[in-house]
Amino acid sequence: MSTAPSARTVPNYYGLWWWLMLGWLASALDRTVTGPVITYMIDNEVSLFQGADNPHAVGGLVGSLLFAGYALMQFPGGFVGDKVGHRTVIVVSIVSAGVATVLTGLATGLVVLVAMRVLTGVGAGMFYSNDRSVIAQQTPLEKRSLGMGIVITGLALGITLAYLLASPLISLGTSWFGADNGWRMPFLFSGVLAAGIGLGMHWFFRRQPEEFRFKPAYPAALKRLSGYGLVFLVVIMLVYVIATEAGLPEWAVALVITAVALGLVALVFSRLGSEIRPVLYNRNLVLIYVAFIPILWNLWFFSFWSVSIVADAASGSTFLEAALTAVFFGVAGILGFPAGGWLADYTKRHGRGRKGVLVLCTFVQGVLTLLFTIYLVNGGQSLFVLGALIFVASLAFNALQPQAQALAADLTTPAHLGSMFGMMNLIGEIGAILSPAISGMLRDNTGNWHSAVILDTVLIFAGLVLLLFIKEKQRGRADVEVG
Predict the structure, then answer these.
(1) Which of 112, 75, 110, 96 minimizes the C-alpha distance to 27?
(2) Rounded to whole angstroms, how far apart are CA atoms 89 and 466?
(3) pTM (2 decimals)?
């Protein structure tokens, strides 16, 4: 059903924002809880990690393989959403990721745990491209950045909850399941919560007004998506098993998985070139895609390892104190995401576009991350200073994300929004695939986090340079197809 939303109030889009924000919360909690739980398992020598020569590298590889599944499903998820309906794929995404997270908590071996984390990534990977598409379709143009910023606040809330709840949930799990199995409880809790939120989203979509009538196509979506998901699971696990049997280091496995992701881009290009030409033959979009690599590197470097970074820097701190300090990375998003979105909408309304404020926020984030790096390298140990630097750098970092997403949407025709956002996150997630494993490897090889944080800072400024070459175009809003 085609509609042409205008500056007037679109019925129920505030409710849409709320439910999509809950979807982000579920997705982020499912993924982020892996980092603090892996840190706990390493520090407490849980049996699954006993015998590992480089435990941080192995733990980082678990995160990298999760993001491999997440990255590889980005484009297929958006492409299928364009065909069968974005809201249908959103529900499938959140429910399937929740089920896989519950199964992670039931894993009895490291290989099974890795496989369930890959499936979690596959499920969660369908969400981003479809969520961004629905917001662009059902939100007035002048509130597009704000809507994307408010909705993605759920990412910050999920990250925050992962840090806050990891320790008490592990303690609860220890009292229920025993000392070696307390790590299971965070996965069981977050998985059940995600599945419940997914079902709630179905309920909401069915009650949207006639203008956005929801016609779920779950059988068609599952048929298409399960094929992609099964192939990606088999490929990733084959790479993992063969590489580990061959004795390849964990960072090399992450590089191989990255090559697989790039191979998917090449396959998409060769098989669907004419169909998705608008999202691949667009210089400005390609610049945004590549600039998203350092953005997502930074996001999942801090999301996965910040508890360990703080614990190493403030060597006398407890696991709970380190987690509570790291939580400032998530809290900053609660403010930064909507503030950045509002700011980009403001500059857009006043004829200055979104690029300028995006470049400014990226520059500020780079400078503040550099200050964090200098403090860490020079032996800074104060939990207060570490938390404050993480917070202020993350404010700018979280502000720039909805700005970049809305700018990309402005440069894309409505019929290709799902494919564009899928390609954007497929390429950008290369940073998320490599970040946990390579950063963990650097930590094991050097004995500290200094080189990993320096690398993160350099990548941020490299992304800034790419953004400078974007030529922002003005495009009127066309009719959209509601899925």
Answers:
(1) 96
(2) 32
(3) 0.71
